[in-house]
Design a protein that fits this description.
This protein has about 140 residues and is mainly α. The chain has a single domain, classed as DksA, coiled-coil domain (Four Helix Bundle (Hemerythrin (Met), subunit A), Up-down Bundle), CATH 1.20.120. It contains six helices and no strands. The longest helix is centred in the middle third of the chain and has 37 residues. The protein is flat, with a radius of gyration of 21 Å.
Length: about 140
């Protein structure tokens, strides 16, 4: 790949890394708070249990978003390392070059379009459904 294109993607990845790091920092600021502190309530005694459930759900959602952000940050870091080693834009499965158009959309990808279709992430239905089918197959005729 040309040096100009490499620099283009490197700048995009560095900006993404900075944005993701800022998100992680904001999650870290909220993470240490107790449920009472995060809800800004003086006491949880008079709250309805559904309100507590909603607060717990929101905290769990934030934790999921933080984990996703960490995963994206790892992918961006991996792509930056590939730029330094000269392996950026090469599919890790088949070794072919990844289309520039695909890299413009997902600059941290390490799979070409064809190989990404063959991964478990692209199978169309959630993996959990396989487990549910087995469970309900044994309980219902």
């Amino acid at each position: 790949m040309e040096k100009k294109k490499i620099n283009y993607f490197k700048n995009i990845l560095l900006k993404m890394k900075n944005d993701l790091q800022n998100e992680i920092d904001s999650f870290a600021n909220e993470e240490g708070q107790s449920l009472k502190d995060s809800s800004s309530e003086l006491s949880s005694y008079d709250n309805h249990p559904a309100d507590q459930g909603s607060e717990t759900y929101e905290r769990e959602k934030d934790m999921g978003l933080r984990d996703n952000t960490l995963s994206l940050l790892n992918q961006v870091d991996s792509s930056l390392e590939k730029i330094e080693s000269g392996n950026f834009g090469i599919c890790k499965e088949c070794g072919k070059k990844i289309d520039i158009e695909r890299l413009k959309v997902i600059p941290y990808t390490d799979l070409c379009r064809e190989c990404s279709k063959n991964t478990a992430l692209y199978q169309g239905r959630p993996v959990e459904e396989d487990l549910l089918k087995k469970k309900f197959k044994t309980t219902f005729p």
